[in-house]
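Colleagues,

For the teaching module next term, I've prepared a clean inverse folding example: a structure given as tokens, and then the sequence designed for it. I'd like students to try predicting residues themselves before seeing the answer, so please don't circulate the second half yet.
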């Protein structure tokens, strides 16, 4: 089967990131999306040091939760993870809005077609179970425990944790960013 050039490019970028390992730190660099919601003020606890470049996580994306997660966003994320874990890739893909943004140790990808949202889900080598939810602004901050899923190749990522910042709106994932595996250390002085 011939894969269109645009899909092949998306799959190649995502596959390179997957080869880096699910459990690896996502603190690498990324470009800012061409269309972005208004930036939000972040506290020092939300900011993680990173190098500038095409893989940097956009500055407006929070790195740590500041409060409880929205239950509706949690339901969408858990439903997406269930479909992905059962290798129901098309169903998992439909939890992503068109258009949406996706970054998993890659530049920020603009997901604008059905094939692209399927490709980003296919390229996730691990299944994941959400173990912790929080929120910061419009984003849900999730900690995942990784496992082998049918159709995937999680390899050494099995049992590791990963983190993400996910923006859910009207029942769809609008933005998905891989965060560094470790939460940023608080810079507040101890009392």
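(Answer key — instructors only)
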């Amino acid at each position: 089967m011939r894969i269109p050039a645009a899909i092949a490019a998306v799959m190649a970028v995502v596959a390179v990131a997957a080869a880096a390992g699910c459990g690896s730190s996502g603190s690498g660099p990324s470009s800012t999306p061409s269309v972005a919601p208004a930036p939000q003020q972040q506290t020092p606890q939300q900011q993680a040091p990173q190098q500038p470049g095409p893989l940097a996580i956009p500055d407006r994306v929070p790195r740590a939760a500041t409060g409880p997660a929205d239950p509706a966003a949690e339901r969408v994320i858990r439903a997406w993870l269930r479909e992905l874990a059962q290798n129901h890739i098309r169903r998992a893909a439909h939890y992503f809005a068109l258009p949406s943004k996706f970054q998993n140790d890659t530049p920020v990808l603009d997901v604008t077609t059905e094939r692209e949202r399927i490709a980003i889900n296919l390229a996730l080598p691990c299944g994941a179970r959400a173990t912790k939810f929080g929120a910061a602004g419009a984003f849900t901050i999730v900690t995942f425990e990784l496992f082998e899923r049918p159709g995937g190749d999680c390899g050494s990522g099995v049992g590791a944790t990963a983190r993400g910042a996910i923006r859910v709106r009207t029942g769809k994932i609008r933005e998905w960013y891989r965060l560094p595996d470790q939460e940023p250390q608080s810079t507040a002085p101890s009392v």
